Hints:
The protein has helices at 2-12, 55-58, 91-101, 113-124, 153-158, 160-163, 172-181, 193-200, 205-214, 220-232, 246-258, 273-276, 278-297, and strands spanning 31-34, 40-44, 71-75, 106-111, 129-135, 237-241, 262-265. It is an alpha/beta fold. It has a single domain (2-11, 28-294), classed as Alpha/Beta hydrolase fold, catalytic domain (Rossmann fold). The chain starts with a helix and ends with a helix.
Amino acid sequence: xxxxxxxxxxxxxxxxxxxxxxxxxxxxxxxxxxxxxxxxxxxxxxxxxxxxxxxxxxxxxxxxxxxxxxxxxxxxxxxxxxxxxxxxxxxxxxxxxxxxxxxxxxxxxxxxxxxxxxxxxxxxxxxxxxxxxxxxxxxxxxxxxxxxxxxxxxxxxxxxxxxxxxxxxxxxxxxxxxxxxxxxxxxxxxxxxxxxxxxxxxxxxxxxxxxxxxxxxxxxxxxxxxxxxxxxxxxxxxxxxxxxxxxxxxxxxxxxxxxxxxxxxxxxxxxxxxxxxxxxxxxxxxxxxxxxxxxxxxx
Length: 299
């Protein structure tokens, strides 16, 4: 562990420190709306600054849901799209404004880094969450709070999705390429969208690597506490993984267990499940949200 922390620190030392910003809560969060009626669905995209990002970009395949009677609200997290940066990506800070964006009540969908933020936000205002859908959420640290689950070798592998690259990468750019490459393959067996973007613009690799290294994640205990709040509030939870990685599937299964939710696999060659298999993803999500609202309407 000490060797890994030292190697991580050496990689971070190669990055330019992010400036500390003041009064960041006053900075705007841009929201794109698709549809004009129906229950609200708030989408929180994944990634870190410097990578593929922005709500409409990450959830383009979900636009047909607006024709199914849902009011889609797609945020640009700070530093993406039309939202100015607030400094390093920060799960707990983002959870504060996400909870506010829930309004009087919304379904909440989060992918990857944004999936962890969605869980933290749901725990802040559980009464405002109609359902919670997490797509391969970056909640692997939470597995440390459930020792029984770690008997599964795939769960142990899930904990190393990021950390194993600390020991092999020599630069932030190399770290970014290794991390992106672990997220599955492209539809044609080539690089996945994240790795393809790095290969197309290699000058961005160092920026992306530093953003991952500098990102502020919630502690395992905070993630577990959020899961317990969500479970105790009886929020309907669906955790989706792509079936391309036993480690990602194991992590999703454990997150579903700890939130008292359900885990389903929507077949995908990589981490970007909602993009790679939009039709099936939309079918599953549409049914789950409709079911949640139906149960909610019961006397």
